[in-house]
Protein: Phage head-tail adapter protein
Amino acid sequence: MKIKTDTEFISFSDGICNIFTTDEDNERVPNKYTNLGFANRVLGFKRYFEASARQINVNRVIRIPQLPGIDNFDYVEIDSVIYGVKMVQPIHDTNPLSMDLTLDKACI
Structure:
């Protein structure tokens, strides 16, 4: 008999973000997702030092509902601050299904 892990219920109530991408000229194109709720996540030691070893700066980690089409070439706007997506991690033991985005401040 397989032991089930506890399901974590997520409310995505820490704020609102917009997810967008840019074209070949580095110009912003219309949002992929607008007014998307997110939950702040703790930037742990393991994630911080793994990113540092790869010379990646990490400013923030958020959890959003699991949605198609989000990748490392996208940007996230939170409170008029733009972050680049550095890593997308699907999370399968939450309700609803979610994904963690590791973010770095972007200059576009």
